[in-house]
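Hi support team,

I've been running sequence recovery on a batch of backbones for a student project. Most finish fine, but this one hangs at about 90% for roughly twenty minutes before it completes. I'm not sure whether the input is malformed or the queue is just slow. I've pasted the structure tokens below so you can try to reproduce it. Let me know if you need the job ID as well.

Thanks,
M.K.
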């Protein structure tokens, strides 16, 4: 009789246990604590036991394979609405009908570039999660929560970079390029879409920089003081990236790209300082009971 009641109870509560299972698994996932091992010990163990390094490489291969597989799926799914996205990207110049192809493969090339960028944007949260899953065994609980929180933030920042490019940078760049010297310009699909997608991709990735710095500082790899000392080199590097991302060397377009990137760099210094302060609080040993009583 007791066995029958237990079976009936398990059957009745099965839906509730099924709903609670992901939350229980996530709690165990976050509460897992790795062994306290220094970096020197990790490298020495890898040299003494090459099989350990091969296991990490095999795990990295599996994570990369799943990330590429999801990217392929999202890119293939983007084929369904790529024409509408292409027309939306061409609105600053009058819509897709304003483009004129002179080669047979231009239209399909533009279609594929738009699909790939859309697929990458959709797959970015999963790609970031695979990176987190690869680092997870070596992270502490507090570090794991911080990195896991950065997964949706990475997607939001990338979308913010795309929106900034489309609404701020692209109109100013097109006004300059299409009216330069008063020469009439009929954009080609391959040239125009390559220009737009490159600009959106690089600025979208640049918007990830503060988040990357915050995570690295929280893990102890980057210090805010180092970023402050290297601000001159950072500005030179930003200028080089802005020149590579923009198709022209005029100061207006470069400033439109450099301005937000410089702001993001100094904002990342603030985030690094906050991450360092949080890391010091977590690593600070608790006060003994006698000191608290005194």
């Amino acid at each position: 009789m007791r066995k029958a009641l237990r079976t009936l109870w398990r059957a009745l509560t099965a839906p509730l246990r099924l709903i609670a299972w992901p939350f229980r698994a996530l709690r165990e996932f976050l509460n897992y604590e790795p062994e306290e091992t220094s970096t020197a010990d990790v490298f020495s163990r890898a040299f003494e036991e090459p099989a350990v390094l091969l296991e990490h490489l095999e795990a990295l291969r599996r994570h990369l394979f799943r990330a590429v597989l999801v990217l392929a799926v999202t890119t293939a799914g983007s084929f369904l609405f790529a024409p509408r996205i292409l027309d939306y990207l061409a609105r600053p110049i009058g819509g897709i009908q304003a483009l004129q192809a002179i080669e047979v493969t231009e239209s399909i090339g533009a279609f594929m570039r738009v699909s790939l960028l859309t697929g990458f944007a959709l797959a970015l949260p999963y790609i970031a999660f695979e990176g987190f899953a690869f680092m997870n065994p070596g992270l502490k609980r507090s570090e794991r929560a911080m990195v896991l929180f950065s997964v949706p933030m990475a997607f939001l920042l990338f979308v913010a970079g795309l929106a900034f490019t489309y609404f701020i940078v692209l109109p100013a760049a097109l006004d300059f390029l299409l009216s330069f010297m008063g020469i009439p310009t009929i954009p080609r699909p391959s040239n125009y879409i390559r220009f737009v997608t490159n600009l959106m991709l690089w600025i979208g990735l640049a918007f990830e920089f503060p988040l990357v710095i915050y995570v690295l500082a929280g893990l102890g790899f980057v210090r805010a003081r180092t970023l402050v000392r290297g601000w001159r080199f950072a500005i030179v590097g930003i200028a080089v990236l802005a020149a590579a991302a923009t198709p022209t060397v005029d100061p207006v377009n470069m400033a439109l790209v450099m301005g937000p990137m410089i702001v993001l760099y100094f904002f990342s210094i603030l985030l690094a300082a906050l991450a360092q302060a949080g890391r010091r609080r977590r690593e600070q040993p608790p006060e003994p009971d006698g000191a608290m009583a005194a």
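--
Follow-up from support: It reproduced on our side and the slowdown came from queue contention, not your input. The chain has a mean pLDDT of 76. No action needed from you.
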